Amino acid sequence: MVVYDPYDWNTQENPYPVYQALRDNAPLYRNDKLEFWALSRHADVLAAFRDHETYSSAQGPALEPLDRAATDVASFLAMDPPRHDAFRATIWRLFSKRKVQALEPKIRELSSHYLGTFQHRGCCDFIADFSGKLPMDVISDMLGIPKEDRDTIRSFTDIVVHREAGQSRVPLPSILAGTQLLAYFGNHLAKRRKDPQNDITDLLIAAEEDGHPLAEKDIIALLFLMAIAGNETTTKLLGNALYWLAEDPTQRKMVQEDPSLIPAWVEETLRFDPSSQMVARTATRDVELHGKTIKKGDRVALLIGSANRDERAYKYPNRFDITRQNDLSLAFGHGVHYCLGASLARLEGKVCLEEVMKTIPDYKIVHNELIRVHSPNVRGFASLPLRFTATS
């Protein structure tokens, strides 16, 4: 009998065989111990994303019980229309394609800078030395976070998503890190009210909901969300991309000979091994599916990582193939909750990987020193050691 426990470290190391078993044998899976359902097939996950009235986000995107403090943190992600739509309209302007594209020179400059700090050594930890730093700098510049605070903020975001083996409730270190982040952004907001800098924080201060300024807690929650989402998912995307290309010499050669394939490399990484593996919803009514009944109020996990490997949607889904069409990928969700930062993540992926392949094209992964992130939601590496030909 198939068992799916998103908090099990063995599952987190490689969830894809479990996903296969779910799709084949239990497309609507029930974990009675943890009290949630899981949808694993592409069609079912897509349908749930589209039906936000039945699959509500009001209890947040994580499976863990949502307490009052977590509600304050996750306010935007724990909203349904119509309030969600009003907030989204406010934030959407901050992440328009035009605004995002204008960041390309800065992203390229940062990429070159960080590569320059280690290319002469012939080795690095790609997460610690590059992919953990650059996305944090990009989102920090957008939010107005000072350079001297960024390492601290990033360490807090890492702790927020980390889970020890078998831990199915939000652990104390994560709660404390989240509380410290909230306190930081509360102070940041107070300073910014006195000294505007014309960044996203100032735009949120000026934004309105139903003709009134946004509530203080809602601005802080949005800053909190953007700091985590702008850092964690792109950090993991970059590491996952390097890892999987290194596993296939033929496709690696294709990218080296034709850099125009790099956006396709990004897209296939997002499909094949997405940073965000799962989001949770709450059923607002009874749902009959696959001969079983999801009851009103039940928690439902939408398994993005499984849906993106479904044979019903893709040919040879377990093959990493940068020539594949990826218009069915659910890596950024779908429908009203489609990720607002998708354009930024794609741009960062494209620019960073272009610079990596120009600077350390012969990188090799030190497999016996790899360390994975342990999280039920986020998939990627905490440490990704590389060796390459040193250059001045």
Report the principal-axis shape: globular
**Largest sheet features:** 5 strands, mixed
End-to-end gap: 56 Å
The CATH architecture classification is Orthogonal Bundle
In CATH, the topology is named Cytochrome p450
**Total strands:** 14
Contiguous runs where pLDDT drops below 50 for at least 5 residues: 67-71
Assign the CATH superfamily.
Answer: Cytochrome P450
Fraction of residues in β-strands: 5-15%
Radius of gyration: 21 Å
Structural class: alpha+beta
In brief:
Helices cover 48% and strands 11% of the residues. With 392 residues, it is α+β, with helices and mostly antiparallel strands.
Question: What would you say this structure looks like, in words?
Answer:
- This protein has one domain: Cytochrome p450.
- It is built from 17 helices and 14 strands.
- It has helices at residues 9-13, 16-25, 42-50, 68-73, 83-92, 97-101, 104-116, 126-131, 134-143, 150-161, 172-194, 200-206, 216-246, 249-257, 262-272, 304-307, 342-359, and strands at 28-31, 36-39, 55-56, 123-125, 208-209, 212-213, 278-283, 287-289, 292-294, 299-303, 364-365, 371-372, 381-383, 385-387.
- A 5-stranded mixed β-sheet has the order 1-2-10-7-3, sandwiched between helices. The protein has a 3-stranded antiparallel β-sheet with strand order 4-14-11.
- The longest helix has 31 residues, at 216-246.
- The radius of gyration is 21 Å and the shape is globular.
- The termini are far apart.
